[in-house]
TrEMBL record:
This is aldehyde dehydrogenase (NAD(+)). Keywords: Oxidoreductase. Transmembrane segments: none annotated. One of its GO terms (molecular function) is aldehyde dehydrogenase (NAD+) activity.
């Protein structure tokens, strides 16, 4: 599909999409540009009627979509990807405004949407066959039905696409609920999808927490895929239990990075800092605890500090900006709490100030806390902002235990020249995704999910497709 054939899309008027049609609402809300504090466009708040109508439309559309050949579903996903790519510039600008991301990082997220969709279009739903003298047993995987996709505010586009693509590929219909903090790109993404998919196959209903509760409790939704906080994830799971919905939860993390003594300090320290501060630390799988071998502790922290001082914080389109603001005031206040606690307890600020200066946007300078105690709040909890602690270690067994001493287990990193040795340590870390000689970079080619309270189940990759399916086994006995 060439850009010349792309219909115009209004990027300043926003609707819920129910049964292929645009819907306004009696009540509206709006996002805030976190770099300026300015109020953005009005969005309709989805009502009970909107939710019920979307579920009814999805269930009506499901039988035909589920029996559409997978190659046809892939073809339509491919057309949707091309159509989205033709609007990449508008989506990038919109993402900058609603999320405050530096333009080059917003463009990377926008570019990731076709990549996620494209990879899923290379996959096939597995089929297994067993035969003996008595019978043939064939295991196939069938779509669940209607999926509610509850999406977060830190990566509103890529994480929406990461739910839409596998849900549609496997033959499900999907209802997207974007975060009220970043509603715009999700609403526009699904509005665009109506040019490709039949009515009811992919819909979007935005709103507040009440809408999320409606979806999780709805008896005619088969699955909820939720990305967000641990506290909210527990509420989602509790609500889904009442109807025994399938559920995938991708929740918070407190990722440890272990730095071995043989690393190239000048090369690795900036990478570790990027893992902590990318997207202003607002990444569930960001580096949040850094354990550095005592033999290189001081020079490594110094190298991190030197790099961190070069990280420019500012609005999206300012030249050279690497980090944008914290996305919303609620999170900004939470992050400030970690600064206040660290100051109150007299922890050493290796870089960054304990006092966050007031500005019209939610800007926070990247900050390193040097060797706080193990029971400190900055070690024990997830800040979800640009502040990270470092600690020295000397005993490998002890640092592995320290890294695993958390109720979460989303990601982790090990850095070392001896890759085989680093991988042995990685095998012992209790996390869903462990990265050797890289900061955390999840990819659609591998399933992504957490251990412990970091989540239930996983998405992406070949095996991630199965979270959108029920196994269906036929036993044929030979006469």
């Amino acid at each position: 599909m060439s850009p010349s054939k792309v219909s115009s899309l209004d990027f300043e008027t926003f609707y819920n999409i129910v049964d292929g049609k645009k819907r306004t609402g009696k009540n509206v809300h709006h996002g805030i540009n976190p770099a300026t504090g300015e109020q953005l466009w009005d969005c309709p708040i989805g009502s009970r009627e909107d939710a019920d109508d979307a579920v009814a439309a999805a269930n009506k559309a499901f039988p035909a979509w589920a029996t559409t050949p997978i190659e046809k579903r892939k073809e339509m996903l491919g057309k949707f990807s091309e159509l989205f790519a033709a609007h990449a510039e508008e989506f990038t600008t919109l993402l900058c405004k609603e999320a405050g991301k530096p333009r080059k990082f917003a463009a990377m997220e926008v570019g990731g949407v076709p990549a996620f969709i494209g990879f899923h279009c290379t996959l096939n739903i597995p089929e297994e066959k067993f035969e003996d003298d008595e019978k043939v047993v064939t295991t196939r995987y069938k779509p669940l039905g209607v999926v509610g996709a509850i999406c977060p505010w830190n990566f509103p586009l890529i994480l929406s696409a990461g739910k839409i693509a596998p849900a549609l590929l496997t033959g499900n219909c999907v209802i997207v609920k974007p975060s009220p903090f970043t509603p715009y790109t999700g609403l526009k993404l699904v509005e665009l999808a109506q040019e490709i998919f039949p009515p009811g196959v992919v819909q979007v209903v935005g709103g507040n927490n009440e809408l999320g509760a409606m979806l999780t409790a709805h008896p005619n939704i088969a699955k909820i895929s939720f990305t967000g906080s641990i506290a909210t994830g527990k509420k989602v799971m509790e609500a889904c239990a009442r109807t025994l919905k399938r559920v995938t939860l991708e929740l918070g993390g407190n990722d440890a990075s272990i730095i071995l003594p043989d690393v190239d300090i000048e090369k690795v320290a900036p990478e570790v800092a990027m893992g902590a501060f990318q997207n202003s630390g607002q990444v569930c799988v960001a580096t949040k605890r850094i354990y550095i071998h005592q033999d290189i502790y001081k020079p490594f922290v110094e190298a991190m500090v030197n790099f961190t001082k070069t990280m420019k914080v500012g609005p999206s389109d300012e030249e050279g900006v690497l980090l944008g603001p914290v996305q919303n005031q609620m999170q900004y206040e939470k992050v400030k709490g970690f600064f206040e606690d660290s100051k109150l307890n007299g922890y050493k600020f290796a870089v960054g100030s304990p006092d966050i200066s007031a500005s019209k946007g939610f800007f926070v300078q990247p900050t390193i806390i040097d060797n706080p105690p193990n029971d400190s709040r900055i070690i024990a909890e997830e800040p979800f902002g640009p502040i990270v602690p470092t600690q020295p270690w000397s005993d490998e067994e002890e640092v592995i235990a320290r890294a695993n001493n958390t109720n979460t287990g989303l990601g982790a990193c090990v850095w070392g020249k001896d890759v085989a040795h680093a991988e042995k340590i990685a095998m012992r870390l209790e996390a869903g995704s462990v990265f050797v000689n890289s900061w955390e970079k999840p990819t659609p080619q591998a399933i992504f999910g957490g251990h412990k309270e970091s989540g239930i189940g996983g998405e992406w990759g070949q095996s991630g497709l199965l979270s959108y399916c029920n196994p269906h086994v036929i036993h044929v006995y030979k006469s």
